[in-house]
Specification:
Blueprint (H helix, E strand, L loop, with lengths): L20 E3 L27 E4 L4 E2 L14 H13 L6 E11 L5 E11 L11 E8 L7 E5 L7 E6 L4 E4 L16 H5 L6 E13 L5 E11 L8 E7 L5 E7 L5 E13 L2 E11 L4 E12 L10 H6 L3
Antiparallel strand pairs: 1-16, 3-15, 4-5, 4-16, 5-6, 6-7, 7-8, 8-9, 10-11, 11-12, 12-13, 13-14, 14-15, 15-16
């Protein structure tokens, strides 16, 4: 499993074995009449993730163990261990969710997106060798059916596919496009589809920081730095805050090639639902472009019996019809 932002930051997947259904009541309101900015996309990469998202997920407390770091260990060794625990959280066999996204431009004008996601855990002894996810947009009508499919490959590069109903075909997203921003959002394809664990190095900056939650409570966090091994990456460094009690990434600061802080990811609503710490609302802000993307999870189902066929290129195309 690759590390992603939207647990969106390294890995926030919602799900737990044995839990069938979680319903989240939407607390944000979305106006029917929306303003759309005039900026056009230079490529037909109009998609989001936020598999969620956009992997917008969370973790099961059964995964959490006492984490001790002998002072003799290096910051790199300790950071790698923390990142591994964030990644290896139990997320169930599969999941299905619906979400709402709001995109704000620098003038404060907003566009709305509605999307659904499917996720399936891969690995040894499972139906697929690596994790798989499928994100499909359902609103507005001009992007209804647009889909984004990710196959994670433990032995090679991840494969990403984009389906655009207007073209009626599936196209592969090249590796050089993984840090492009789909659907005009502040997330990248890599945020959505995940990062390969081995493609980054990790370092524990400190274990004495504190994070203040939206409700005012204060929590100890690890301050973790991740650096990509790709010299051409647009965003080569991320500094994340990882809660020490549940290994949920609650904040991520994304730096560009000039090492400027360009994007900030924040968890706005984190709740323990049936024993699972779940990110229900999040936001990504581009401090240089003065834009932001908000994401709200509306409904999630777990262990619904998905199969490898639900994540095929045929399913990506046919599901839009």
């Amino acid at each position: 499993m690759a590390l992603t932002l939207c647990e969106t930051f390294h890995t926030m997947r919602i799900g737990a074995p044995g839990q069938r259904y979680l319903s989240v009541t939407r607390t944000a309101s979305f106006p029917r009449k929306l303003f759309v900015n005039g900026r056009t996309m230079s490529r037909l990469l109009s998609l989001f993730l936020i598999t969620p998202f956009l992997h917008t997920w969370a973790g099961n407390e059964r995964f959490l163990e006492a984490t001790t770091f002998p002072q003799s260990r290096s910051a790199e060794e300790r950071g790698t261990q923390i990142a591994r625990q964030v990644q290896d959280r139990d997320t169930g066999r599969d999941s299905r969710s619906t979400m709402r996204m709001r995109l704000f431009d620098r003038q404060g004008r907003v566009r709305e997106r509605a999307l659904s996601t499917l996720g399936m855990k891969g690995g040894a002894g499972r139906a697929v060798p690596g994790d798989r996810s499928l994100t499909r947009f359902t609103y507005p009508n001009d992007i209804n059916g647009t889909g984004f499919l990710v196959w994670e490959n433990p032995e090679g590069e991840n494969e990403r596919f984009l389906y655009l109903p207007s073209l009626g075909r599936v196209r592969r997203i090249a590796g050089s496009e993984t840090q492009d921003r789909p659907m005009g959002s502040d997330f990248t394809y890599e945020d959505i589809g995940g990062r390969e664990f081995e493609d980054y190095t990790y370092r524990l900056i400190d274990d004495t920081s504190r994070w203040t939650a939206p409700d005012g409570t204060v929590h100890p966090v690890f301050r973790l730095e991740s650096r990509t091994r790709d010299p051409k990456a647009k965003f080569p460094r991320v500094v994340s805050l990882v809660r020490q009690d549940n290994f949920v990434v609650v904040r991520g600061e994304v730096h560009n090639r000039r090492d400027e802080l360009q994007k900030v990811f924040d968890v706005k609503r984190l709740e323990r639902v049936n024993g699972i710490w779940t990110v229900l609302e999040m936001v990504m802000v581009d401090t240089l472009q003065r834009t932001r993307t908000e994401l709200v999870v509306e409904k999630v189902e777990y262990n619904v019996g998905l199969t490898a066929a639900d994540f095929s290129r045929r399913a990506l195309e046919q599901g839009a019809r």
